[in-house]
Amino acid sequence: MELCSFLTLDSFITDPLTHEFMRKALLMSSLVAAVCGFLSSYLTLKGWALMGDAVSHSVMPGVVVAYALGLPFSLGAFIFGVGSVALIGFIKQKSRVKEDTVIGLVFTGFFALGIVLVSKIKSNIDLHSILFGSPLGISLSDVKQTIFICLLVVILLSIFRKDLMLYCFDPRHAKTVGINVFFLHYLLLTCLSLAAVVGLQSVGIILVVAMLITPGATAYLLTDKFDNMTVISVLSAIISSLIGIYVSFWFDLETGGSIVLAQTFIFLFAFLFAPRYGIFKLKKLFAGYK
Amino acid sequence: METINYQNFRIEAENICVDYNGKVALYDANLRLKPGQICGLVGMNGAGKTTFFNALTGFVNISKGKIRINGESVRSAQKDQTIAYVPQNEGIDSQFPVNVWDVVMMGRYGSMNIFRCPRESDVQAVKDAIERVDLTDHLSTPIGNLSGGQRKRTFLARAIAQRASILLLDEPFSGVDIRTEKLISELFIQFKNEGKTILLSTHDMIHVREFCDLVLLINKTVVAYGETSEVFTPENITTTFGGISPDFLFGPES
């Protein structure tokens, strides 16, 4: 790969598209990013970043067991994801240990179990691709599964979009007007587990939490309207994932890391220059020139 | 003893107890309110005021006792949009990306379809409610840019839009400007005439005398309950506040 080969923007973009695996990677990662970005608005507003981290790490043993038994990996991941949350709730209620400690304790425990299982179960599980993602090497059965999960999450979030927003904003009011907050709580957790499962293919278990919080945090700095926040979050997630994959292709970098790094840079840009909430409020800068 | 006709009471709480993981927050509490009554809920921090509200809205389950709202269960009261809760300003995330219109529209969610698509009648209810709290100029202002008083009025408008017959207000007068205070007191008179029942918690003793027909003094359980003129005595207040003299509580201004 020679640097001069992408001197024109045109070939920078089109060259990778000639490869089948790149087309697939770009498409799948964008889809996954969009889903995670959609969910991200809710998680950042609900303050569930740590919960996102916990669930995404806890799915590890589920993925390993599912692979070993020949089951869909999403099933195993889902069971362990929801299981970890239930366990966190149980330990918190039955002991005097503080919540953040319990969360940290449970998810590292699950994660460690996953790593031990990988070393024990004789199979062709690629630890590296679970930990760091492998969007370029995604198999056809994984593609089908991913598309199915993504559609499911998008449909669920779309139907309960406003209820979830109300649940994040004022659960007490939601309950008072007869909305089932118990259901919404577990709906959000279910979507979180599912998004973590598809997200880990793109960027791996370790970084998947970034997909679940960074786009939402970026959007939060850029708007005061919830609907706009969702749109911005989804767009920034898709753009980061495209940038990440292209950059990783041309410079031969780890793909998952590149995607997350692109998200981080977009966040930093918003942090510095967001019109209203940025450090150097862009509006004011422009106003100065008028 | 006379037989109780539940239909006469909007709120009927009988010997209710609430505990959180074995810690008792409220026990043997009773309350009966009729349409058009305004009742003040007075007690120290941690005396169970919020817990009482939570029990009435069904946000926490009671471990003992019985609650009837308009003669029905709390659950059907939720379905019927009977109770509206107006939170303390501190109780909500003011940085949440919603504007005045969005918040007031939330009052209609319970009676909308599953996608929460506003109908013409919902839009009208929201418009009317916002007009009544005098925020028509701030329809699309994010709640983060409102003053404390404006934010309080926004949540009052949500309760109005909900068309609830019972209003629970958590510290309605804390951190609000004179204009909002005046508007709230005018609304109280209107609510009373409409036959709504109001239960409000407050730290401010003056407001109790000014607005409340009845007062409920609590300290984990009911210390005293009845007509404000009879019950709101220095002795009762001192008992409620764990032996602190009312002179200290009322402050020099009163």
Element pattern of chain A in H and E: HHHHHHHHHHHHH
Provide the CATH topology of the domain at 16-204 in chain A: ABC transporter involved in vitamin B12 uptake, BtuC
- What is the number of E strands of chain A? 0
Helix % of chain A is: over 70%
Number of helices of chain B: 10
CATH class annotation of the domain at 16-204 in chain A: Mainly Alpha
SSE class of chain A: mainly alpha
Main location (chain A): membrane
Subcellular location (chain A): Cell membrane; Membrane
Pfam families (chain A): ABC-3
Membrane topology (chain A): Multi-pass membrane protein
Features:
heterodimer, A: 290 residues, mainly alpha, ABC transporter involved in vitamin B12 uptake, BtuC, 13 helices, 0% strand, B: 254 residues, alpha/beta, 6-stranded mixed sheet, 10 helices, 9 strands, 22% strand, globular
What does this structure look like?
The complex is a heterodimer of chains A (290) and B (254). Chain A has a domain at 16-204: ABC transporter involved in vitamin B12 uptake, BtuC (Orthogonal Bundle), CATH 1.10.3470.10. Chain A is 82% helix and 0% strand. Chain A is built from 13 helices and no strands. Chain A has helices at 9-17, 20-46, 49-69, 73-94, 99-120, 127-132, 140-159, 161-169, 171-176, 181-222, 226-251, 255-273, 282-289. In chain A, helix 2 (20-46) packs across helix 10 (181-222), helix 4 (73-94) packs antiparallel against helix 5 (99-120) and helix 10 (181-222) packs across helix 12. In chain B, 35% of the residues lie in helices and 22% in strands. Chain B is built from ten helices and nine strands. Chain B has helices at 49-57, 74-79, 100-106, 120-132, 148-162, 178-193, 205-211, 228-231, 234-240, 246-250, and strands spanning 11-20, 23-33, 38-42, 64-69, 83-86, 166-170, 197-201, 214-218, 222-227. In chain B, the strands form two sheets. Chain B has a six-stranded mixed beta sheet, with helices on both faces. A three-stranded antiparallel beta sheet of chain B has the order 2-1-4, covered by helices on one side. The longest helix of chain B has 16 residues, at 178-193. Chain B is globular. The model of chain B has no long low-confidence stretch (mean pLDDT 90). Chain A binds chain B through residues 45, 93, 159, 162-163, 165-166, 168-179, 220, 223-226, 228-229, and chain B through 21, 54, 57-59, 75, 78-81, 83-85, 87, 91-93, 96-99, 102, 106-107, 109-111, 114-116, 142, 144-145, 158, 162. Chain A: Pfam families: ABC-3.
